[in-house]
Amino acid sequence: MARYAFTDIHGCLLTLRALLARLPLCPADELYFLGDYVNKGPDSRGVLDYLMALPDQGYRVVCLRGNHDQELLDAAEGRAEQAWLSTTERALTLHSFGISDPQQLPLPYLRWLRDLPHQLDIPGWTLVHAGYDFRLSAAAMRRDWPTMLNTKAFVFDASRLQGRQLLHGHVPTPHAEVQRRLAHAPGAICLDTGCVYRHNPELRHLAAFNLDTHELTLQPNIEPDYPIAKR
Predict the structure, then answer these.
(1) pLDDT for res 80
(2) Closest CA to 227 of 98, 125, 118, 87
(3) Residue 81 has pLDDT above 70, yes or no
(4) What is the spatial distance between Cα 71 and Cα 38, in angstroms, rounded to a whole number?
(5) Which one of 38, 41, 97, 112 has the lowest number of neighbouring Cβ atoms within 10 Å?
(6) Please, are residues 46 and 53 in contact by the beta-carbon 8 Å criterion?
(7) Please, are residues 119 and 64 in contact by the beta-carbon 8 Å criterion?
(8) pLDDT tens digits, residue range 37-64?
């Protein structure tokens, strides 16, 4: 049995499928996704459909909540103004679902988004989308949902996680930098290699991380052209 983690897919379905096809996956392998399945990229609905179907292939799949998943859910439930994305990004996301208003999001996707957990502990690892405020007590930081979804900087404290390593996404990081950091066995690892930023050669990759061997597999973005702010 193998354990793999992925993060920040942002509607890049073709890239996700290509990455998983490169892995030596077997039924009963564990696949962990750290959030941000939607927005920015071309096929948010396709990514959700793909993730929702994976368990039927025999894999153990756990999908965590990212800030963009929360933003889509908020918009669908009427808790966000039209500024939840730029005009272009909003149109791209809504077009993928065949709707003109986020409150028309079909119920199966609403239910799936509502059920996404914020964090997960597994042997050796704590998984979360963005990170924690380690200045808080261990109990308080585990209830601080906004930080878990949105923080871009924190000082890691392994004692707050009972010695587990932390794996997160959310902050686009050049793939060469991610590989360099992995060589030093850090306590906290950012797996977001900025797949959706297709114009930036230092990013524009989707990463798969083997949680047991620490092997990193990188798949370049292969989506058809779509509008995206440069980063």
Answers:
(1) 76
(2) 87
(3) no
(4) 9
(5) 112
(6) no
(7) yes
(8) 999 999 999 999 999 999 999 999 999 9
**Nearest to 130, CA basis, from 162, 173, 179, 74:** 173
H/E run at residue 217? strand 216-220
Q: For residue 195, give Cα distances in angstroms to 159, 201, 222.
A: 32, 10, 10
Is the C-alpha dihedral spanning 69, 71, 74, 78 positive or negative? negative
Q: Does a structural domain hold residue 29?
A: yes
- The verdict on residue 144 lying in a domain is no
**Band of the pLDDT at 83, cuts 50, 70, 90?**
low
Which H helix or E strand runs over 67?
A: helix 67-76
Q: Which two tokens stand for residue 40?
A: 């920015």
CATH code, domain carrying 60: 3.60.21.10
Q: What is the DSSP letter of 143?
A: T
Residue type, 7: T
**Maximum distance among all Cα pairs of the chain, rounded to whole angstroms:** 47
Rounded to an integer, the average pLDDT of 68-78 is 95
Average pLDDT, the chain: 96
| Per-residue confidence (pLDDT) for residue 84, from 0 to 100 | 72
CA-based nearest residue to 41, from 215, 210, 172: 172
Distance, in Å, from the CA atom of 166 to the CA atom of 176, rounded to the nearest integer, reads: 20
d(CA 60, CA 183) in angstroms, rounded, equals: 28
pLDDT at 143 over 90: yes
**Alpha carbon distance 109, 114 (integer Å):** 8
- The answer as to whether 15 is a domain residue is yes
